[in-house]
Design a protein that fits this description.
By secondary structure, this protein is α/β, with parallel strands linked by helices. Helix content is 56%, strand content 13%. Ligand Z5A binds next to helix 1, helix 4, helix 6 and helix 8.
């Protein structure tokens, strides 16, 4: 039996992260690995879900400061790491997380322009609790991703940002992804069937070697 893993799915909006989480869970189930928890960030604990609402919703009376956004994201992440992820990993459960530290590097560091040295300090706190075994990055063209996200529902507070914001997010994703040792990059511009096939084939290969 394989040792349980902490898997992170990353990418721009509409890249298919939520879909990919389900694909991986289903693949593991078919391979007799049934103790699998999918979590989303920010979110997945009662406090983190409250924080998610503050981060996603537009407050017309008061603008959310970029540093408040950053610290809220890390408050949500610490709650999730300490209360769900760490205990589940200890019990031998697998974790699939829809976003993690790399999202903050890309959105708050790249998009909002917050100094990476501050984000690095916060990431070190998170990594001391537990570090992902694998990051799967769904590489989607901005236009395709945003179109999919918009078709699914109206844009939230972050999705309403400018094209330039998302270009910076993508740039930082790719830059910092290059420092990740354990990663899989998927071309997420293709149709669902092709993307699913590629995810399974690359993930299967990774699992067989880890
Ligand atoms: N955020 C941040 O700034 N910093 C952080 O540290 C963290 C988060 C952790 C979370 O929003 C927001 O928080 C996010 C970044 C910020 N905001 N923005 N912008 P969210 O969780 O609500 O949304 P999201 O993470 O951006 O994901 P999403 O928009 O829900 O998309 P997705 O999960 O990547 O894709 P999906 O739900 O699987 O698919 C979207 C639609 O496309 C759906 O109808 C699918 O059926 C369809 N789809 C999926 N794949 C395909 C393919 N291959 N072809 C065609 N259609 C497809």
């Amino acid at each position: 039996m394989k040792k349980n893993k902490f898997i992170v799915i990353e990418g721009l909006e509409g890249s298919g992260k939520t879909t990919a989480c389900k694909i991986i869970k289903n693949f593991l189930f078919l391979n007799n690995i049934k103790k699998v928890i999918i979590v989303r960030q920010p979110g997945s604990t009662s406090i983190s879900e409250k924080i998610r609402k503050i981060i996603k919703n537009n407050n017309k009376k008061e603008k959310l400061n970029k540093f408040s956004e950053l610290f809220l994201l890390y408050s949500a992440r610490i709650q999730l790491m300490k209360n769900i992820i760490k205990p589940a990993l200890k019990k031998g459960k697998w974790i699939i997380s829809d976003r993690h530290n790399l999202s903050s590097i890309a959105y708050q560091g790249g998009g909002r322009g917050i100094d990476q040295s501050l984000i690095k300090i916060l990431n070190n706190i998170i990594n001391k609790i537990s570090k992902p075994d694998l990051t799967i990055f769904l590489d989607v063209k901005l236009k395709i991703g945003l179109k999919r996200a918009f078709l699914r529902s109206n844009f939230d507070r972050i999705e309403q940002q400018s094209k330039n914001f998302f270009l910076k997010v993508k740039k930082y994703y790719l830059k910092f992804l290059s420092f990740e040792k354990n990663k899989i990059i998927i071309n997420a511009n293709n149709n669902k069937k092709i993307v699913q096939k590629n995810i399974i084939s690359k993930f299967k290969n990774w699992i067989n070697n880890n």
